[in-house]
Design goal:
A two-stranded parallel sheet has the order 1-2. It has one domain (2-40). The protein contains two helices and two strands; from the N terminus they run E-H-E-H. The radius of gyration is 9 Å and the shape is globular. The chain is of the alpha+beta class.
């Protein structure tokens, strides 16, 4: 399943991590490119 999350703040990041661990595809959207870049560095593998 593909899930879109608007906002890469604390809550958005925690939600994204949980959903990725459940093997969902997550698309994170934020106005701050640095936040999105940091989010891609911390995704579980």
């Amino acid at each position: 399943m593909t899930i879109f999350i608007i906002g890469a703040g604390f809550t958005g990041m925690q939600l994204a991590k949980m959903l990725v661990l459940e093997r969902n595809k997550v698309v994170l959207i934020d106005n701050d490119a640095e936040r999105v870049r940091n989010a891609s560095d911390v995704t579980p593998r």
